[in-house]
Design goal:
The structure is a homodimer. Chain A is an alpha+beta fold. In chain A, 32% of the residues lie in helices and 27% in strands. Chain A is built from 20 helices and 32 strands. Chain A has a 10-stranded antiparallel β-sheet. Chain A has a 5-stranded antiparallel β-sheet with strand order 8-7-13-18-17, with no helix packed on it. Chain A has a 5-stranded antiparallel β-sheet with strand order 20-27-28-29-32.
Chain lengths: 766, 766
């Protein structure tokens, strides 16, 4: 855990240069616009420790899988997020000496990520080995408005000298993935040109044949007396050096405009042309105007999704950082894209899509974005259905059973630990549940018959084959699974997974009933070779006869068979210095312990809370929460929501802070690899579903707000079925502002109230 | 499964050259002498598919571990059997054309491994692309008498031409391990010299700093009119070309002598000197004399360890092949060595020592070799105790608890699948049991207090920490283990493992009691910081309160918790074409199935058979045998022994054949990687403990022979407490010949009989 980021409501600020934290800051200060993004690397040369990272949405590479011991069923290749062209480079030289913060004496270093307006700014004074002192202010953004464009204004003041200078902007496609399994380079040069004006490299990926053209233009303003430009090319690399002379105390600024154009959106033979046009247009518009329209778009974003917390700057900064990252990672315009676990902030982990999307991220986009955005997220899985069926076939399932991959980029599995790839199958449940979630929130009933049921049938078929009848128990059981708690592997009858399976079967049967006899259903049946009653009767039989572990004496659901045979301890019993256990204990010790990585049984109770009375929820919470180490970033939010529900305000606040400031405080000591982007949506959930007690039940909105003692108040906005609502809690009052021209009935603490059109309703906080 | 090896009682014979089987034959026809050995590669250049392999005993390299996903506790490096200098090379050229069976037309190809006399012979006629025809007979052996020396007589006859010839013997240290994780070469050249006489390369390994000098000399006899020699050197390589002319129809022979001298046995600065002396001496003695003394040694070997089977050539050849491999892999002269899973026949799998040594190989060496040989095998583990304690500490165990590695070369772990490395801990039990086995067989009672107890205390401490008290069960349980059946992972209360743990505690307590109050025990207690009653009382408490699964209704022990909840099927229910399941099913399907890779519960019943009545054994056999797929080479022998015990003659014979001809018939389709050396000892057990019903109970010998219907008779020899015994079964009679000058009381079918000194006793077969 670190504490070097300044607390500020709207900005992430680092003051003073700490080289050993540089890679952490590179992650935290990352910027993106949904189409491309990158880590907060320096523009000028830096010979110190850095993880250079630039990523173009949807562009991936299937790296050869690396394992110690092969298991049947592993994928041969893994789709990896691909490190793409470094377009930010601007090398700076004075009288032959290169500016490099690793060799200079650095003072007044400041890095700021302005979240409200979406740009990155860095300033510093550097004394170079020769004694020359320069001061620099650089501003960078990836335009939210012109989403192919990145721009930089790099302002330099020679503080104590006049002399010759060279500035060298570049585009560098000669990059490697830090996580490449066999040190392979994944890009092949196709075309390049270094010129005084537009310079570019176009490269393509091996195997997947994505093509990307990255080009640039720049001009220098201020006190720089130019003596001309020299273009220069190397393998997959172009640069242009502009030489000149500079004067003591007089600033000059390099304006660099770059564009990333990918074959995801344009024909290959158009890429260079489009790139040149985009760069030319950006350069013509100019940095300030580009930045102004970009800022305005960000401000607009905040209107939809901001959460204001009064009286707690750390919490305020945390939630805004989470919302900022989500909004710059995924804009929902392209249903081929998804929310990578590290967004555009790093390349660790193959693939980009986990169950995180459905179980955590969806809630945020449902509430803060246009319905199309969430729809694209659920459609993403619909488009991958054929591959999910192939994936299941590879494991021995038949007849259209679908197993979605644990991690994916294009529908294929990108993970190879047997205990996860083959066993952490509850992901299938989350994908099914997301269909319900989307329809329930936005009321898009047609989605079920048009797309949802086809996916639900595939998943139900999988569950029906994945359970087996146990003669011994006289019930169906599900063996060999790994629940959300990955600190248990290959267990039998994981309550959460079995519960998800049963829910899927039930919801699918409901859907089939709803559209019984319809033409659409008939043609769906044809499409999926549905075997009618043979299938539905099996599903019903499973629903009636499935084993779910429950302990009468303790009154708790059993995470898995024999869970109670463990040595049951509390997290407080772990010796000091042993946490996180995943960094201090051997894997075998972790597995045998009772400690839970992330919400597992409680994840199911959270999802299906209305099935249980409050005492049951309480008993389970009190049983499992003390054993939960929350070593997954996805865990605290769920416990926080339940704690809020149970009125455990201190626990709810503790859990909230832990998720909200995970990366800012480098809580898990791994932010240098990139931010925990998907779990950021969990922070939003911990707030909205936790403190605000927001639910959608049968298409109707419920709130049940509470206010942590540490806060004076909060307010936030959501979209719900055509309405824009502002919800605030302060001074013992809840106020719902209905900004749309249609009234809305909703429930406050289970009491029906009406938020009138363009009006508001207030009630007292309980 | 293949069937190209000719059936012959004393030889392994291949007739006709089948290039696609070449790598299989290279494994099967391997030769070794306990100190070095290698695959049956060709001497002359071969451009076809080949796995070149030469191995020097005890020389290993710690390769960097490769995994997909790191788990805490994995070893950073893996000791690997090291491919060493290729000393057999003799390139042959006529008028500038190189002899290469991959480009020639080959006829009359014959490869023979003469097991009785321990040499490899290959003959063929080759028509080279030019039309030249040569016929070759080459004989090779690694001397059992001068165990640093390998020798080759390579006889060539130009069939249809006279002309110029070049012969080029070489020593090539520029080799790679086929299983290198990062394509690294592990040898560094230290010194070399190519000369007309003695030529050599000395190389050392990186990190481990083993040094090996490999040198050669050769001379040419017969119709070769020499025009002189040209030495030639390359990186890690020396060769000497002798040019000359040859005559149609007149044979010449190259005699090549090589020595491998390693720093395991000599100072580094002596290696080249010793190598030169050894080669000179061999060359002086000459090929024929060297071969004669080598043959005599092999014949002598067979006197001790042969098994004669009458009326079944396939079975005869199988058992002799197994015995031959064991005898050429391990001679028991050096307690630093052990029996690698592939012996000198291949390099797959890191490390060399598995629990195979204790659970399978020991029985063979106990019965057929001098007591020192088995003693060295148990001492091997004694010497690794400190590392086993370190290994356990790495996993979180304390206070001198010892966990021996799953696979090792030097005491360190060489395996990295968590479900095996951390969980397949029953190996610790086999290592404990071997101490008992050795003492029980040879009566070396002092071994217990001098060495055995120290190991037993370490292992008992491990078990005492590895179980935990389950409040729920009110008993001790052992969670998170993998039994011998690796088709189950991370199970609770594996009956076999728990049973081994209990046995260890009991035997350790017995040992402590036996030496109670003795000075030796006191100093042992000091050495291991024994905490007296605190430790022994805990062990006794575990012995009294350990959970062992048993199903009352079925009357069977439970392989693990919830085993009966599985869908119980028979191997016969597996669809045709789906076996072996490990090549046809996904890992997850295998895990969830009831199918058992190798004897697990039955392994325990086999070990502790005297605890159970015959009905119990029968019930368990009839329950587990039909679910066992025997996809480990170590499995059929144990089922065979139990089948013999139960009088299931057909099953016993089926199991026996399966283990005896595993490699000869390439049963598992993987012999090309090397032979299954350790499981060969299982074949011996299936014979001796199965058909002959041999047991040692409280230091006394028992036989309970039966004869498969397919055989006319059998006889074999064992050593037992100073006696050499010949046991034969034929014509309804069992005869025990006591070849020593001391009578022996023993039990036949539980009846006491006496085998008089230098006399014999016969009884009727039951």
């Amino acid at each position: 855990m670190k504490n070097y980021i300044k607390h500020d409501p709207w900005s992430i600020i680092e003051e003073g240069f700490i080289p050993e934290y540089n890679e952490i800051s590179e992650s935290i200060f990352s910027i993106g616009n949904g189409m491309f993004g990158g880590r907060a690397n320096f523009e000028e040369k830096y010979s110190g420790k850095t993880l250079q990272g630039n990523y173009v949405a949807g562009v991936y590479y299937p790296d050869k899988t690396r394992v110690g011991w092969w298991k049947n069923g592993y994928p041969e290749y893994f789709a990896k997020v691909l490190n793409a062209a470094n377009w930010i480079g601007i090398d700076i030289e004075f009288d032959g000496e290169t500016l490099d913060l690793n060799t200079a004496e650095v003072s007044d270093f400041r890095r700021e990520l302005n979240m409200r307006e979406g740009y990155l700014q860095r300033s510093f004074t550097a004394k170079m080995p020769s004694g020359k002192v320069v001061s620099v202010i650089t501003t960078r953004f990836n335009s939210l408005v012109k989403n192919k464009i990145g721009a930089i204004a790099y302002q330099v003041t020679p503080v104590n000298f006049s002399g010759t200078a060279k500035i060298t902007p570049s585009v560098d496609f000669d990059v490697v993935n830090a996580d490449s399994n066999y040190d392979e380079k994944f890009w092949v040069e196709q075309e390049k040109k270094a010129a005084e004006g537009f310079s570019y490299v176009m490269a393509s990926t091996k195997k997947t044949d994505f093509w990307v053209a990255t080009g640039m233009e720049f001009h220098v303003g201020g006190a720089f007396d130019s003596s001309g430009r020299t273009p220069n090319e190397r393998e997959k690399y172009v640069e242009v050096t502009e030489a000149g002379s500079v004067k003591e105390g007089e600033a000059f600024t390099i304006y660099k405009y770059a564009a990333n154009i990918s074959s995801m959106y344009f024909e290959k033979d158009q890429l260079v042309k489009v790139c040149a046009e985009e760069v030319a247009s950006a350069s013509e518009i100019g940095f300030d105007t580009l930045l102004d329209e970009h800022k305005a778009a960000w401000v607009q974003n905040w209107v939809k999704s901001d959460i204001v917390i009064e009286g707690d700057v750390a919490a305020q900064q945390g939630i805004r950082f989470n919302i900022f990252q989500l909004n710059q990672t995924y804009t929902g315009q392209d249903e081929r894209l998804n929310i990578g676990p590290k967004g555009f902030t790093g390349e660790k982990y193959g693939g980009s899509t986990y169950w995180d999307t459905e179980a955590y991220c969806l809630a945020f986009y449902l509430a803060t974005a246009e319905p199309e955005v969430a729809r694209n997220l659920v459609l993403y899985r619909y488009k991958h259905l054929a591959r999910a069926i192939e994936n299941a076939e590879k494991l021995g399932f038949t007849d259209g059973a679908a197993l979605y991959p644990m991690v994916t980029m294009n529908g294929e599995e990108c993970h190879n630990e047997w205990e996860i790839t083959f066993e952490e199958i509850h992901r299938n449940g989350a994908i099914a549940y997301a269909i319900y979630d989307y329809i329930n929130y936005h009321g898009d009933e047609d989605y079920l018959i048009d797309y949802g049921l086809e996916v639900l049938i595939g998943i139900s078929r999988f569950w029906a084959q994945r359970v087996h009848w146990s003669e011994n128990k006289g019930q169906y059981v599900m063996h060999g699974v790994t629940g959300p708690n990955e600190y248990e592997n290959n267990v039998n009858n994981n309550w959460y997974t079995s519960k998800m399976a049963l829910w899927t079967l039930e919801y699918t049967l409901e859907g089939l009933k709803k559209y019984e006899g319809s033409d659409k259903l008939k043609s769906l049946f044809d499409k999926v070779n549905f075997r009618g009653a043979e299938e539905t009767e099996k599903w019903e039989h499973i629903l009636d006869n499935m084993y779910l572990g429950y302990d009468e004496e303790k009154g708790v659901f059993l995470q898995q068979d024999n869970f109670l045979d463990k040595e049951l301890m509390s997290v407080d019993d772990i010796t000091k210095g042993q946490r996180p256990i995943n960094q201090n204990w051997s894997w075998d010790r972790i597995l045998r312990s009772c400690f839970i990585k992330q919400a597992d049984t409680l994840q199911g109770i959270y999802l299906f809370e209305d099935e249980f009375d409050i005492e049951t929820i309480e008993r389970n919470f009190d049983f499992y929460e003390p054993m939960t180490v929350h070593e997954s970033s996805l865990s605290p939010c769920v416990h926080g929501i339940l704690a809020s529900k149970l009125g455990r305000k201190e626990k709810a606040y503790e859990m909230y802070l832990r998720t909200a400031r995970l990366d800012l405080d480098d809580y898990n000591n791994d932010t240098e690899d990139g931010c925990h982007t998907t779990s950021m949506a969990g922070t939003w959930m911990a707030f909205a579903k936790g403190f605000a007690g927001m639910r959608v039940r049968n298409g109707e909105l419920y709130f049940s707000p509470s206010l942590p003692d540490q806060w004076q108040g909060y307010n936030f906005h959501i979209k719900f079925r055509g309405r824009n609502l502002g919800i605030s809690a302060k001074d013992g009052q809840i106020n719902i502002e209905n900004e749309s021209n249609e009234a809305l009935d909703l429930y406050m603490y289970d009491t029906k109230v009406t938020a009138p059109a363009e009006g508001s309703v207030s009630i007292e906080m309980e």
